[in-house]
Amino acid sequence: MADTRTLKFLIRHRFGIIVSAYLLMYVLCYFGAYLLRFDFALSDDAAIAFQSTLPWVLAAKVLACRITREWWRRLRYTTVADIMSIGWGCAGVATAMLMANPFVPAAMQIPRSVIGIDFLLAVLSTCLLRTGYRIYVEAIQPRLDGRKKLRTVIYGRGDAAISMLKSIQGMLPDYQVVGVIDEHLDKDNSFSAAGIPVFSAASGLTRITTQVKATHVLISGSVPGKKVRQLLGLCQDIGLKAHVIPDIDEIVSGRLRVSIRDVTISDLLRREPVKLDVQSIQAYVTGARVLVTGAAGSIGSELCRQILSMNPASVIMLDQSECGIFHLQQELETHGDENTTREYPIGDCTDSQSIRRIMLQYRPEIVFHAAAYKHVPLMESAPQESIRNNIFGTRSMVDLADEFGVSRFVLISTDKAVRPSSVMGATKLVAEKYLQAVAARSRTEFITVRFGNVLNSVGSVVPTFRNQIKNGGPITVTHPDMRRYFMTIPEAVQLVLQAGAIGSSGDVLILDMGEPVSIVDLAKDMVYLSGLRCPEDIEIRFTGVRPGEKLYEDLFYLSEEGAKKVHEKIFLSARSSVAEHVLLQDLDRLESCIGQSTNEARSTLLDIVNNYVVIDDAQHTDLRRAA
């Protein structure tokens, strides 16, 4: 109890204690300078000079500490910048003392040798004070508390891995970094940084961690998912604990603080960071009025977050979900620049009158259309609603964008629009075709962006598996050979914004989704990350392919294979559009089938899109003949 009171007293009076310690140290330094100068035998004149000048010297040093903010710099996190600041402050005091000498009485003049010795002693003692405190906090105090630090190696790439040392040592005192593994370092070029050995990853994780007796591995957020998966498997085999720490760029930018967390499924599927042409994106987003439909959804909400960071004039976040818009408003009201206007209208894209009112009120210049029904099996049993929302909702938005002179319109599409076997995929293909048809005659630039599944979106496989594991299993997988393309939501949105910058009207841009992922492997990874084993703890049960599902998704039609890249991770489709008069006839058929039975609506939709598929794949044959 007494120790607690003492600690509270020290915390409450911390600043006063620090100032008092510095003043005492400066008195001793100044007195020590006189003693050294006069061989520890002060004459009466020297003693008088010391006593008469001490208040002025202390006042100068206090002023220097205030100017350099010495007392506001935490002792625990002393850096080279702090040492430089100490040197400049002490040099300023010494210079002031030298300049004042000619203007004071002879009895108060300070010998130049005393000034020089005092400067050296002040710098040395201040540095020793800071270093000593850091040694106490990081090395001595944990031993006194009986707290054992976790011996840790950092696994990263290039200078970023070494830069993590400082962050961890300063802000994560429970971890003792005993080694750094650099993925970009040659095997024969190992060295030390801040007394910590830096190894090449080529030397092998097992060998390195055994050599330095590490029990934990901290993996940098910049390491690709494929490598994280390998590291996780190795750590499991040799009994190491693996965690993830944010990349140094994320810490410097302020997006994340220094913290350690468990490995997630997103880490295992993370790809090489996307290199964006930020200037081209800002050129069309910054200062613009941007409308995002489906703003409360997984893609829509991330679009809003990233667009807000680019300082648009306003962001209009539209969704039909009152609850979704409420939560989005709570999150984003203070996100981004305070000069950006945020609007949260509630409306249905299929209601032309409602959308017209919103267009009249906010006059958007850019539209990102993310509103859609996306759940494949559910839409199989509700094709009328899927047609109404995904096709005629898009038609309403496209027509009004054309009417109001929107400069750019980006449609979020899906890989399920390629040779669709589902109602959802078929409706998205019709939406793509309508966009292309209108683009041929409109001043608005209409661009389609197509990609596969995104991790952690609402209703997707990852949160479904997570809930099944939480409930003790089993995990249900439709088929052992089921594979899907996956991309994180932030990466997908980054590429959507990039596609919007580089696409031309009528383009269908396809995001590079990397390699498809086995759903069974995904399930096993999630079981392991939960601290369990499969099948001992959690069983995987196969339930059969659901209506509308494929075992493998396609990203390209035959005519699109070999499509050229317009960005390192974006392909440009080479597809023919459907004549608008033909498309309008098809839309009339679809509109009439909304009131028909489920089977009739589905068959009408699939009959129409099969004609589109034939046209696209026939174009491939025509292109080969021409070649």
Secondary-structure blueprint of this entry?
Elements: H1 2-12, H2 14-37, H3 44-68, H4 80-100, H5 112-144, E1 150-156, H6 159-171, E2 175-182, E3 191-193, E4 196-200, H7 205-212, E5 216-220, H8 225-238, E6 241-245, H9 248-252, E7 261-262, H10 265-269, H11 278-285, E8 289-293, H12 298-308, E9 314-318, H13 322-332, E10 341-343, H14 352-362, E11 366-369, H15 376-380, H16 383-403, E12 408-414, H17 423-439, E13 445-451, E14 453-454, H18 461-470, E15 475-477, E16 483-484, E17 486-487, H19 489-502, E18 508-511, E19 517-518, H20 519-529, E20 540-542, E21 565-567, E22 570-572, H21 580-593, H22 598-626
Parallel strand pairs: 1-2, 1-5, 2-4, 5-6, 8-9, 8-11, 9-10, 11-12, 12-13, 13-18, 14-17, 15-20
Antiparallel strand pairs: 3-4, 6-7, 16-19, 18-22, 21-22
Helix pairs in contact: 2-3, 2-5, 3-4, 4-5, 11-19, 12-19, 14-16, 16-17, 16-21, 17-22, 18-20, 21-22
Description:
- It is a single chain.
- This protein is α/β, with parallel strands linked by helices and 627 residues long.
- It has 3 domains: 14-144, no CATH class; 150-263, Rossmann fold (3-Layer(aba) Sandwich); 278-621, 3-Layer(aba) Sandwich (Rossmann fold).
- The chain starts with a helix and ends with a helix.
Keywords:
3 domains; nine-stranded mixed beta sheet; 22 helices; 51% helix; 14% strand; seven-stranded mixed beta sheet; Rossmann fold; disordered C terminus; 627 residues; alpha/beta
Please outline what is shown here.
A hairpin with a 2-residue loop joins strand 21 and strand 22 (570-572). Helix content is 51%, strand content 14%. Helix 2 packs antiparallel against helix 3 (44-68), helix 3 (44-68) packs across helix 4 and helix 4 packs antiparallel against helix 5.
